[in-house]
Amino acid sequence: MKISRRQFGLAGLGAAGAVALGACASRATAKPGIPSGAVAADPLTHVAPEYREAARFFIEGGPPGVDSMETLKAARGGGAAFAAPRLPDIPVSKEIIPGSIDQPDVTLYVINAKPGEKRPAILHTHGGGFILGAAEWEVGKLQGIAKELNCVIVTVEYRLAPETRFTGSVEDNYAGLLWLYNNAASLGVDQDRIALMGESAGGGHAALLAIAARDRRQVPLVLQILIYPMLDDRTGSTRQMPPYIGAIGWTADSNRFGWECFLGQTPGGPDVPAAGVPSRQTDLSGLAPAFIGVGGVDLFVSESLEYARRLTEAGVMTQFHLVPGAFHGFDFVQDAMPTKLFNKAKMNALRRAFGQPLDL
């Protein structure tokens, strides 16, 4: 299997996630708080066979991680190269809408709108560690999902950290959700069939958006799709993982930097605001049903498991899909059978929430 930059954009990882993953590909190095001798001699040992060639590509050819303003600037330079080509038969429009109170206007990309119909919709938030990526780069990938599900998708060009802290980007995303709901008729959307979806940091944003929707009681949601979500600032800072988890893809160093940029303070401390961290929320009851998917050697595997457990105990209908031996962003390896099964489960979760026939 030959892996190219273009494959990232054509895959489920999407352009924003590809930038983050490519920029943060890890070589086996010691992590803070873990003795150097504890680092696995071969970081591929715990990777599933279907993903080892891709993992080797990152280990041998990946650039340094994003863990400083200097490396962030370099990583931001090449993201557009990963974007998937757009489908000519699925309409896309760019909308600039008013932001929330005291916030600037927000740019949205609206995919597959058909006025006069009443179809389900997805509000999408892109990945990139809170510091990278662009909604515009995700359009080609999202067109394929919109076509398969016969739905509308709105993806939000939220402001990135560190230029904007979490309070600003959360409001950008909420403004997009509220606009989608209020303009349902002109978009051809059923207000009672709106879901959230995000990958990596976008999964963290989707989780925060689900909490905001519950608390503000303006937009009902049928589902939140959280794909290898970035949920807990303590991962890689005050909470260390075994050396083989997070060794490939998004690393602990990059995670600490991303959270510090997003929060505006050192992650992991006792005074971190829960409003910016889904896993620090004390009450998860009343949230939309959830689908959470993550790889077994992803840095986010433990926090995803814990969030799924807490959602379940809070009475939230939760489906959890673990892909054994898969690293962060594994789904760009489209031909791997575990990826196919994962994508099928994700799409069926959406179909079930939308009241559509399942793909059995």
TrEMBL record:
Keywords: Hydrolase, Signal
Span of domain Alpha/beta hydrolase fold-3: 122-330
A Gene Ontology molecular function term of the record: hydrolase activity
Entry-linked InterPro entries: AB_hydrolase_3, AB_hydrolase_fold, GDXG_lipolytic_enzyme, TAT_signal
PROSITE patterns xref list: PROKAR_LIPOPROTEIN, TAT
Signal sequence extent: 1-30
Pfam family membership, one: Abhydrolase_3
Domain of life: Bacteria
Protein name per Swiss-Prot or TrEMBL: Alpha/beta hydrolase fold-3 domain-containing protein
